[in-house]
Description:
Blueprint: H1 4-8, H2 12-18, H3 22-26, H4 36-41, H5 46-58, E1 70-78, E2 86-89, H6 91-103, E3 107-116, E4 119-129, E5 132-145, E6 148-156, H7 159-169
Parallel strand pairs: 1-6
Antiparallel strand pairs: 1-2, 3-4, 4-5, 5-6
Amino acid sequence: MTTSxxxxxxxxxxxxxxxxTAAAVTGGTLLTAGTAGAQEAQGEHPNVRLIKEYYSVYAExxxxxxxxxxxxxxxxxxxxxxxxxxxxxxxxxxLAFFRELAKAGFRAEPIFLAADGEWVVDLHRGxxxxxxxxxxxxxxxxxxxxxKIVEAVNFAGDQHAADQYFWKTCRLAPLPGRLG
Length: 180
């Protein structure tokens, strides 16, 4: 029995390193971040364009600039068992999360984006630079209404590595100040 990796001759590491898309690997037809010209010719979904804009602004490293993408009642869920895990509610909590990612020099490189109705699915490489140490595949499910992100749910490709990294780099405030 052969795996799809054996059949395609491309490993997950190759996909991450080269920024290949699933369509490039399998010969399929997918909406991907790497085929922007082809998508526009086919009428790219407006929510895919919005998430591409979001990632472009995110790459600037200024979390405050992300505010324009979020609805006032946004919910952003970060999985895991670490100091940043949980559901952030409202723009201020979500931006606080992004400020912590900025301290770690977090970067994201979109690999795949697809939309259906209000939902956008995103697959990206996410890595830390300050300190380096986390470099994994992430998936996000974004729900978009009226050109604003109203909900996002993160899925880590290696949750154990993410938990370990964030416990190492994100310190909790001492008690009793940590408690509401």
